[in-house]
Fold this sequence. Notes:
This protein is of the alpha/beta class. About 30% of the residues lie in helices and about 10% in strands. α1 packs parallel to α2 (about 70-80). The longest helix is centred in the last third of the chain and has 16 residues, at about 115-130.
Amino acid sequence: MKRIWGKRGIFTCTIASTLTSTIPGISEAGDTPELTLFTGPADAELLMAGKVLCMKDIPMNPGNIPTPATLTKAALELSGMPFAIINGGSKVTPRIPCIEVGGVTGEKITGGHAMEHDNVMRRSSTGRSSGSTSRTHTITSW
Length: 142
């Protein structure tokens, strides 16, 4: 704590997808199983651009409850905290600038291996390295 006490942080939002979310009944992150693939990118767009660009409206769950990203956006605005969006393997590409780390979308768990072991290890290493250093990654824009 001594290392970070009194210093200003940065909020990072990492988005990624897994096709497991498209299995009916598995996820409440979208109004339909197919829309779960849009939730991460839409949330990121809401945070960065103030509006959703990759789909018609903000993500809702089947109970018609809006995405928690609305609360995150309010908290970031009130705090003035800087933030960055990291694309860790989203199936749907967000239409905002984001840090690309070379992630891939996870497959369905019903196939036995949602991700290859080597890919998991590379992404884990990239995440640890990114979090502990000021290493830069490629920033893309739509």
